[in-house]
methylmalonate-semialdehyde dehydrogenase (CoA acylating) (Meripilus lineatus), 539 residues
Amino acid sequence: MSINAIRARTLATVAHPPLSGFTAVTRQKAEQLSAEWKGTNAVGQNTKNFIGGEFVESKTTNWIDVVDPASQTLLTRVPETTGAEFEQAVAAASQAFKSWSRTSVLTRQRFVLELQQQLRQHGEAIANSIVLEQGKTYPDAQGDLLRGLQVVESAAGIPSALLGNAIEVSKDMDTTTRRLPLGVCASIAPFNFPAMIPLWTIPLAIATGNTLIIKPSERDPGAAMIIAELCQRAGLPDGVLNVVHGGVPTVNAICDHPSIKAVSFVGGDRAGRHIYERGRKAGKRVQCNMGAKNHAVMMPDANKNHSLNALVGAAFGAAGQRCMAISVAVLIGEAQSWVPELIERAQKLIVNQGFEKGADLGPVTSPAAKERIDGLIASAQEQGGKILLDGRGLEVAGYPNGNWVGPTVIEATTEMRCYKEEIFGPVLILVKADSLDDAIGIINSNPYGNGTAIFTQSGATARKFENEVEVGQIGINVPIPVPLPMFSWSGNKGSFLGDVPFYGRSGVDFYTQNKTTTTLWRSEDAIGKKASVVMPTHL
Ligand code: NAD
């Protein structure tokens, strides 16, 4: 049975009465969102497709419920966009490409600047939507948007980024290279950063002259719908950005459609491998950011206070649902004696609904995710691991139905399932190592290569780590070293498939192709001479 069929069957057996589990605050925010935005809804009505500049109700018979992870209250229903609607989105994007790709780069830059302003002005609505659908805390939802906004802001430099090359290769002969858009592109997003990930692709794909079809996560499409409306308000012509919805059928339609030239994907390994293979087979440019297991090495000479705070924040913030969350701490020597203090700090974190004051982390995304995380914690116990702090069975006052998992700390070995699998929850695995070399060995043996960090006061230790560790994004006394958009994403090994990464210089490369022209306007032709018939060598 397909994942979608299982999900549909599960949802069919669960009743989600709209608004019944809301507090007064949540209800007010849900009602305000629903009243103010055309594409999204948080009071039980349907999320729309955005095709050719119109927010349109889908004609599908296949709807996916989106529920508040803190209360299981029905927020909205997302369509599995029909084949005909998907074709309309591709047709709108193809038609819009004809004119958008010929629009001046300054017009495209102005759109980016306008979008930046719109996003800043309406950031509260986006953050509210993220808290409701995704469950993270309000300040963390603001961070989700801000990290996306930074990509928008860096895309404002698009005229310089698109500068080509030119040289007089021979007398009176010039070769120029221009960076041109690809055509219709598509972007498939995960649930954990509903604003940031769409904003990794929207500004650069569009500023480089492409048109784009976005498929947000079917679990939290609201932020993408608000962003689409803000793109429209920022003056984006109809059809340049389109939003379709759904699960595997819509993703497969994206991979297969001959008019789509490039696919960006961020999400889990299974989907990523499938999309990479299917998209590449159909001749598309594909970039896939996937799962992770990020290790932090705690050296005994580290600043204990800073390291412990950094570790606790990076392991449990966003309920561990960040691809750059620290999920493993490798403790070396004396650092192994810091565990009681680590646990003390983890215990102090407040788990609560995202709008509640003082909440440090919210619920995990779904009952299925909670069950999977609880199962991985149990597996550690079965395989001989020591559960030092157990977040299972947590109850949160006022939210009896939330998908709660509290901060969990497990002492384990690298053979155990809880170490090997990505948990994607508030669970920190502790492993011990005798030396820095052993720690580097552990990290390099792990199939993932998204992020890693070392905490030390020694420049030499940090330098050795940086030189020898094979992971693509390294933090030295920095727990979540996500590169700002003047750089590019550089996760590697099992965390990435493709050749050209997201945003920054690479983002511009991903969304453009070079066209090279060689031109001869010979000055002597004005007076006429015999034609040369030998092979041109440009010498
Ligand atoms: P997911 O793979 O379940 O879903 C991601 C997208 O793929 C969604 O839009 C979904 O509809 C689609 N999808 C899901 N299963 C599919 C399938 N079998 N075939 C085709 N499409 C499918 O991921 P998620 O649970 O939404 O997100 C969490 C995962 O994303 C974690 O593994 C996390 O590490 C990863 N992630 C990675 C990065 C990164 O930059 N490396 C960033 C964020 C999240």
About this structure: DSSP finds 18 helices and 22 strands in the chain. Residues 3, 188-193, 215, 217-218, 247-248, 251, 266-268, 270-271, 274-275, 289-292, 323, 422, 424, 450, 491, 495 surround nicotinamide-adenine-dinucleotide (CB under 6 Å). The first strand starts at residue 49 and ends at 51.
